[in-house]
Amino acid sequence: MPVLLMAVLNDPSRMWEVLDAWQALGIADATIMDSTGLHRARRLRDDVPLFPSVHDLLESTEDHHRTLWSVVDETLDLEPVVAATERILGPLDQPHAGLIVALPVLKVWGLRKPGT
After folding, report:
1. For FRET with 32, which of 18, 79, 85, 99 sits at 20 to 30 Å CA-CA?
2. Residue 15: its pLDDT value, please?
């Protein structure tokens, strides 16, 4: 059964290091999303419009996370992926490091096989 691997990076500046490490371990594709957590959302600035444009978001000094997600084959050993991520971000059980979740996926349409 395929696995949905999700990582929330508290430090967005480390994103490319994490993605490079993942690729070296066999994760060919990932989706990158800008995200924020509940505690940060509660501190939203009043000067950011209700429906911000991309320009507004880029000009904002608001902290954001990066959420990476990828659907991987169940044969991929995730322990080296977590270990490599922790070498970059620090131990994930420490505050403000990040979070990794792996969830089973029942069905996938459009998943490319590695190397295709």
Report:
1. 79
2. 92
In the chain the domains, ranked by start, together with CATH numbers, are 3-104 (3.30.70.120)
CB 83 within 8 A of CB 14: no
CA dihedral 70, 75, 80, 84 (to 10 degrees): -20
CA–CA distance, 5 with 103 (Å, rounded to integer)? 7
d(CA 102, CA 19): 16
Residue 90's closest CA among 1, 14, 5?
A: 14
> Are 68 and 18 spatial neighbours (Cβ–Cβ below 8 Å)?
yes
Strand ordering across the sheet containing 98-104: 31-35, 65-72, 3-9, 98-104
> pLDDT at residue 114 above 80?
no
- Please tell me whether the overall predicted TM-score, pTM, comes out greater than 0.85 for this model: no
Dihedral sign of CA atoms 9, 14, 49, 42 in order: positive
How far is the CA of 52 from the CAs of 36, 65, 97, in angstroms?
Answer: 15, 17, 27
